[in-house]
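Hi U.,

Before I forget, here's the chain from the pilot set. I'm dumping it here mostly so it's searchable later in email.
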Amino acid sequence: MAAAAPPPPPTAAAELNMDLTTTYPLFTRIRLATKPDVPVIHKMIHQMAVFERLTHECSATEASLSATLFTNNNPFESFTVFLIEVSTTPIPPTPTHHPKFTPIYKTLNLDLPVSDPELSSFVSSTMDDGVVVAGFVLFFPNYSTFLAKPGFYIEDLFVRECYRRKGLGKMLLSAVAKQAVAMGYGRVEWVVLDWNVNAIKFYEQMGANVMQEWRVCRLTGDALQGYAASSDMWGGFSLWTM
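Structure:
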């Protein structure tokens, strides 16, 4: 009697896809700010003053910002502001842009969705659906006599609290650095509060030199007015030869 045929090999079970990770896209745009953006810029300046514990020094108003920030229509030759805007849906391209700067678009994939409690207060002036302002950087030209080249000085860099630790600050800094390189500038400079250790660590990791040997010197308010008045007594003496 012939032996029975062996049973067929078991069918391999289909492998289950165990990668159930969900990401939440956040669409971003960096663009040049214009005068209609003053209200949101003013709100962020106030929030920055609260974070830096300097509200007693913050006297800026929407009117004073409008009168001083956008008097020159040539960005990068005077005060310049980049805004970073975000949306949970793709942001449409801007119809026009400055010849020296093209808006920067990037999509971030986050592990968790962002809850923005101030969504309605930071709607973009472009009126694109669902687009809100998340942060800004304000900078202007300076000059290095050692390099014999202009550069950019960053006065303020700020990201709203609910959008921090997502790379938006780095994107704003990169945009300024990229603009400096494109224009042949020699460096980008800024200052940081000595107690802001997280910011200092971040700047050092990105390659910035935190210059411990330098101190910021500032004349403002009554001290500025008083020193300007006292200079009348100097005659032709030059301060810089002291």
